Amino acid sequence: MEKLTHFDEQGKAKMVDVTEKDITKRVARAFGKIQVSPETLKIIGEGKIGKGDVLGVARIAGIMGSKKTSDLIPMCHPLLINGCKIEFNINRENNEIEIYSEVKVSGKTGVEMEALTAVSITALTIYDMCKAVDKGMIIKDIHLLEKIGGKSGHFLYDNNTKIK
């Protein structure tokens, strides 16, 4: 396992210096979901939530969140996001809205945190817009699906890997 990069020799937090790194194409994809009641899923699908188009607003919030990641996560570098995409899959069997993000950048550092933030903010926005009718929603399973580019290479999530 590699050493943690956000601490100096004395154990103090620091921002990683990327001055000497090359600018390369980097892509990250993340996933998460929000479980809602069957009634809430029906109301979202019918467009009857009083605050508006839930998935449309959540998509915009997720994209905006990806661009604000460095404002939220202390050691993240501000990045000029080249592209961010949010997609949904409605899983009616489990009453879940699955959220997928993809973030792209040409830069000196990766966009994993931006992809994860996009999913998180998207799910939180769905919660906010629907909380008047369903306070029991559960946001879960947020994780990195894939990372492409950079010195550490390609990462692809293997759901057979158990975190200990």
UniProtKB/TrEMBL annotation:
Residue positions of the active site: 128
CDD domains with a match to the protein in the record: MoaC_PE
GO biological process: Mo-molybdopterin cofactor biosynthetic process
Recorded family membership: Belongs to the MoaC family.
Pathway(s) annotated for this protein in UniProt: Cofactor biosynthesis; molybdopterin biosynthesis
Binding-site residues for substrate, renumbered to this chain: 75-77, 113-114
Job description of the protein: Catalyzes the conversion of (8S)-3',8-cyclo-7,8-dihydroguanosine 5'-triphosphate to cyclic pyranopterin monophosphate (cPMP).
Protein name according to UniProt: Cyclic pyranopterin monophosphate synthase
EC annotation from Swiss-Prot or TrEMBL: 4.6.1.17
Species, as recorded: Clostridium intestinale URNW
Subunit structure, as described in the record: Homohexamer; trimer of dimers.
UniProt keyword terms in alphabetical order: Lyase, Molybdenum cofactor biosynthesis
Molecular function via GO: cyclic pyranopterin monophosphate synthase activity
A Pfam family recorded for this sequence: MoaC
Entries under HAMAP family matching the protein: MoaC_B
Class in the EC hierarchy, top level: lyase
Catalyses which reaction(s): (8S)-3',8-cyclo-7,8-dihydroguanosine 5'-triphosphate = cyclic pyranopterin phosphate + diphosphate
Record flagged with keyword Cell inner membrane: no
